[in-house]
Structure formats: structure tokens, C-alpha cells
């Protein structure tokens, strides 16, 4: 019994000594971490060696629980915030691999502390907290960078460790997406208010179907003219000014629609007011598209666009019934007054809450990762026409541009096909038309989050996003064609088919168009690539409103709906042909990656 108590007492004393020794070790560790955070750093010779020696003995004497914790911590590879100015997380895999090879100066497949000094120098070009002339400080910072990404504690990082650290930083969606989504929610709600009202306002003023198509097309024509200048202005002055000026112009245009006379001058007044709305919309979308592109990475592009897409869907969900109710209750002009006020609130909220996101591109290849990014610093001097010629040689750009065109064509045709058919053939009121749009948007909002998550997952698995867009185009064309053929000429089936085409867009087309376009272009091309997408969509709106409005007046509204479905089917075939080589490249790259990993 006495021997057991003695043994137990000795164990307790050993544990006390062990914990006392561990407290001393932790105090040394705390001092070391304080130094990493910028406070005083000890320069006692041999201290780091003693600390590593003690830590290694700790690992051999610690229990299994602490071993598992240390293993999990050592397996974490984190990209230091000090390297954020190098924009690694915004690079494609090829660009990132090239950047790794550049910093691997002796080409042995590893970046050690000596080579990481160049990382510190390049990342610190805009930060004066570290003196470049102090070699000791540079060496300590380089060692900290290596430790943050080193998995097996061999004091150097390989390509896999570097890539996984960057991917870990690039996967989360930036919180900056939410302020712009809230701002754009007001913008889209204001636009949604006028969707079911403008055709009734034009009809009340005595306009024909073709004249209504021209009023709708005037906004698209203004956007076509201003898309490229708006993109250049966003590159020159930043994204935030575009998100302030654009909604203000839109508010002025909506006020003009509300004040338009109902006499012989109605047509010209409505066209002029809607043209101003088009200028405001082009400026707003140029700033919005580049804003989201700035904060997205190759691993989260679809998810970064998702909150904006959801804001648009929510705005168009609540806007049409509000607009229809106000028009039925108070008059056709009042929804436009409300829209004007909402757009002014959008401009005010952008001024108050949105930060600037335009990145300053590096001035050397060490800071950018590619020669083309280097050219981005003088984007304003680059010819937009030359960029367009280069991009239009890419079959992927040709294919996705055709998709944007047909999407705009259907949007432009809604006023002269779907709304006219619903109101004059199915005898639906303004409020009922608004509720039909709302029902479709509710379904789209429900599938937005899983659709964008799946898009990023599908792309990150090595597949091409075009594989998702093609069946979406087919389903949407089928639903549109069935509406035009009057297979179910009553309100509920017509609404169900309308929702089916919108759900196909929300699940398979809309979440993939912009990410596909951004993936197919370089950073220096993206401003004009987004302008090209907007222009193709606006050309579709223009041609859809005018041509299908003329078809509706000459032949009939159902025939016009069938024509739009046929055009969508043709674009599906064209897109599949143009993007076939891209899908083959993706499959080949995936197979090469799998072979290298095995």
C-alpha cells in the first residue's frame, strides 16, 4: 500500500515538473509568435535551435491527443496575408505554376527560405513596415512564409504545398459581395416594378405593337452604344463611380417615363426616356460586373456571382406584383415614380457603403504571373477594337456570345410576345401578369444557391461549364416552343411552361455564362469581355423587340413565340459546336492531372 502511494506521488511530481517545463516552453513560443506579429523580436543566438530542440522532445513525450493536434496543425497550409498584394489567389493554375517556377530560382522543385526572400521583396513593394535594406528582417519574414505553408516541417515548400495554400485562400467568397448585392437589390426591384406596366402604358398612349417594340429597343440601343465607353471608364476611374452615376441616370429616365404625355408626342417621349434608362443601365452593369470579377477567384466565380443573381431574382420577384398592384390601384404612372426613387436610393447606398475594388496591377512579372497581366497597367492605352478582334478569334468566346445574344433576344421579346399574349389572348390583368413573373422568379431564387455551388464544384472537378449550358438551352427552347404552339392555351399551363423555361435558365445557363466567359479570358481582357457580353445581350434585346414585334403584328403572337424558340435551339447547336474543342481540352487536362497524381 505504501509502495503504491509512493509510486502515485512520484507520478504526480513528474507531471508537475513536466507541466512546469511545458509552461517555460510555451513562454518561449509566445515570445517567438510576438516577434512574428511585429513586436520586439529576440536575437539571442541559438534560441531558435533550443526552441526547436525542446519542441521536438515535447512531441516525443506528449500523449496521443496532443500528437493528433500537432499533426492536424502541421497539415494546415495557409497563404500569409502578407502575400495578398501578389494576387496569387486570382491566378489560374497555369499562371500560378509559372509564378512558383519563377520563385524557385535554382529549379529544384522547392522554394526555401533564401528563395522566399524575393517573395517578401515583391509583396512589400507598397508596404513600408519592413526595411528592405535590413537583411535579417527579410530573412525572418521569409522563414515565416515558409512555415505557414510547410506541411512536413522540412523548411521548404513544394508545388503541391504552395498550390493547396493558395486554393485554401481562394475558395471562400469575399464578404465584399454583400454590400453590392444589397445595393443592386434596390436597383433590380425598381426595374421589376416597371416590367408588367410599360406595355400597358404604351397601349394606353395609343402605340402599336411595333412601336412598343421600338420603345423597348431604344433602351437596348443606348446600352449598345455605351457598353464599351462604360467599360473603359470603369477601368480608368474605378468601379464605385459607375455604381453611383448609373443609377442616377436610370432614375432620371424613369421619371421621364412617368411624365411622358399621352398625345401624339408619346412615342418620342417614351423612346427618349427609355434611352436615358439604357445609358444608366449600361454604366451600372459595367461597374457591377467588374466589381464582382475583381473579388472573385477561379475557384469561387459562380458562388461570387450568386448573391448578385439572387438579389436580381428577389428584386424581380417583388417588383412586378408591386408594380401591377400600384398600376391597378393608383394609375400607370405611379410605378415609374417609385422606380425613380428606388434608383436614387441605390446611388446613395453605393456612395455610402461600397468600397473601391479595382486592383493595381503589378509592374513586373514577379508581381503578376504573366506577360499579359503586365500589359494591364496601361489598359486605358490599349485599343478596345484590338482586344475584341483577339477575343473573337476564340471559339469559346464566339459560342458564349451567341448565348448572351439569344438571352437578350428573349428578354426583348417578352413585352411583344409573352405579355401581349397573356393580356390580350388569355385576358390576364396587369397584376396577374406581374404574379406570373413573380412565380417564375421565386422558382429561380430557390435554385440559385445550389446551382452556383454545383457549377463551381463541377468546374473544380476538371469539367467544362459548357457541358451544363447546352442542356439548359435545349430545355428552355422546348418550354418556349410549347407555349408558342398553344398546346395548353389556358392560364395555368402557360404559366407553368413560362416557369419551366426560367428554371432551365436559372439552373444551367445563368450561373455559368459569366464564369465561362471569365475563365476563357485573361485579366487584361475581362473589362472588354464583359462589355462584349453586355453588348451581345443588348443586341439581342434590340433585335428581339423590333423583329419579333414586327412578326407579332404581321403574323401573330404565337408564331412570334415559336420563332424565338427556334432561334434558341439554333444557338444551342452553334454553342455545342464552338465549344467542343474546349471540352476536349478539359478532358485531356483532367486525364493528365489524374495520371500525374497516380
Describe this structure in words.
- By secondary structure, the chain is an all-alpha fold.
- It is built from 25 helices and two strands.
- It has helices at 2-36, 47-61, 64-74, 93-103, 113-123, 135-149, 159-170, 177-194, 198-204, 209-237, 240-258, 266-295, 301-330, 334-353, 365-368, 371-375, 384-392, 395-414, 418-424, 430-460, 466-484, 491-519, 526-554, 557-578, 580-597, and strands at 110-112, 156-158.
- A two-stranded antiparallel sheet has the order 1-2.
- Helix 8 (177-194) packs antiparallel against helix 14.
- The longest helix is centred in the N-terminal third of the chain and has 35 residues, at 2-36.
- The chain is elongated and about 80 Å long.
Amino acid at each position: 500500500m505504501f509502495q503504491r502511494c509512493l509510486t502515485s506521488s512520484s507520478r504526480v511530481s513528474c507531471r508537475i515538473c513536466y507541466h512546469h517545463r511545458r509552461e517555460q516552453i510555451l513562454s518561449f513560443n509566445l515570445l517567438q509568435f510576438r516577434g512574428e506579429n511585429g513586436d520586439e523580436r529576440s536575437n539571442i543566438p541559438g534560441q531558435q535551435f533550443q526552441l526547436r530542440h525542446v519542441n521536438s522532445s515535447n512531441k516525443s513525450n506528449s500523449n496521443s491527443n496532443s500528437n493528433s493536434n500537432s499533426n492536424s496543425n502541421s497539415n494546415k497550409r495557409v497563404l500569409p496575408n502578407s502575400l495578398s498584394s501578389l494576387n496569387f489567389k486570382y491566378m489560374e493554375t497555369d499562371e500560378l505554376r509559372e509564378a512558383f517556377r519563377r520563385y524557385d530560382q535554382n529549379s529544384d522543385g522547392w522554394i526555401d527560405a533564401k528563395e522566399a526572400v524575393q517573395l517578401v521583396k515583391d509583396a512589400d513593394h507598397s508596404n513600408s513596415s519592413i526595411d528592405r535594406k535590413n537583411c535579417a528582417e527579410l530573412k525572418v519574414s521569409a522563414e515565416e512564409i515558409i512555415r505557414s505553408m510547410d506541411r512536413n516541417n522540412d523548411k521548404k515548400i513544394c508545388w503541391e504545398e504552395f498550390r493547396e495554400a493558395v486554393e485554401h485562400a481562394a475558395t471562400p467568397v469575399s464578404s465584399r459581395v454583400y454590400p453590392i448585392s444589397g445595393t443592386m437589390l434596390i436597383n433590380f426591384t425598381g426595374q421589376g416594378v416597371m416590367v408588367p406596366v410599360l406595355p400597358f402604358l404604351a397601349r394606353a398612349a395609343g402605340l402599336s405593337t411595333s412601336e412598343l417594340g421600338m420603345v423597348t429597343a431604344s433602351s437596348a440601343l443606348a446600352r449598345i452604344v455605351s457598353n464599351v465607353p462604360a467599360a473603359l471608364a470603369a477601368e480608368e476611374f474605378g468601379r464605385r463611380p459607375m455604381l453611383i452615376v448609373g443609377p442616377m441616370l436610370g432614375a432620371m429616365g424613369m421619371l421621364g417615363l412617368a411624365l411622358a404625355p399621352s398625345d401624339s408626342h408619346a412615342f418620342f417621349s417614351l423612346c427618349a426616356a427609355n434611352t436615358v434608362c439604357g445609358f444608366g443601365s449600361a454604366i451600372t452593369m459595367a461597374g457591377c460586373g467588374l466589381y464582382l470579377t475583381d473579388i472573385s477567384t477561379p475557384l469561387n466565380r459562380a458562388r461570387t456571382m450568386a448573391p448578385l443573381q439572387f438579389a436580381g431574382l428577389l428584386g424581380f420577384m417583388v417588383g412586378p406584383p408591386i408594380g401591377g398592384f400600384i398600376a391597378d390601384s393608383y394609375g400607370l404612372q405611379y410605378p415609374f415614380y417609385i422606380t425613380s426613387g428606388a434608383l436614387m436610393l441605390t446611388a446613395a447606398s453605393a456612395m455610402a457603403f461600397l468600397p473601391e475594388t479595382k486592383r493595381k496591377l503589378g509592374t513586373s512579372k514577379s508581381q503578376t504571373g504573366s506577360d499579359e497581366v503586365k500589359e494591364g497597367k496601361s489598359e486605358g492605352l490599349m485599343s478596345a477594337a484590338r482586344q475584341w478582334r483577339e477575343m473573337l478569334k476564340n471559339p469559346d468566346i464566339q459560342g458564349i456570345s451567341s448565348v448572351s445574344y439569344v438571352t437578350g433576344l428573349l428578354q426583348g421579346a417578352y413585352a411583344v410576345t409573352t405579355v401581349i399574349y397573356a393580356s390580350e389572348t388569355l385576358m390576364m390583368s396587369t397584376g396577374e401578369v406581374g404574379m406570373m413573373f413573380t412565380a417564375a422568379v421565386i422558382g429561380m431564387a430557390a435554385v440559385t444557391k445550389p446551382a452556383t455551388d454545383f457549377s463551381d464544384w463541377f468546374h473544380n472537378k476538371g469539367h467544362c461549364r459548357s457541358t451544363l449550358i447546352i442542356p439548359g438551352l435545349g430545355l428552355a427552347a422546348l418550354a418556349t416552343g410549347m407555349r408558342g404552339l398553344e398546346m395548353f392555351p389556358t392560364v395555368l399551363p402557360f404559366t407553368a411552361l413560362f416557369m419551366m423555361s426560367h428554371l432551365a435558365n436559372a439552373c444551367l445557363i445563368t450561373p455559368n455564362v459569366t464564369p465561362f466567359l471569365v475563365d476563357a479570358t485573361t485579366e487584361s481582357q475581362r473589362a472588354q469581355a464583359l462589355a462584349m457580353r453586355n453588348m451581345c445581350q443588348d443586341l439581342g434585346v434590340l433585335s428581339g423587340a423590333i423583329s419579333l414585334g414586327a412578326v407579332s403584328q404581321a403574323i401573330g403572337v404565337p408564331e412570334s413565340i415559336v420563332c424565338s424558340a427556334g432561334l434558341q435551339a439554333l444557338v444551342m447547336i452553334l454553342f455545342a459546336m464552338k465549344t467542343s474543342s474546349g471540352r476536349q481540352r478539359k478532358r485531356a487536362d483532367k486525364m493528365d492531372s489524374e495520371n500525374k497524381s497516380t
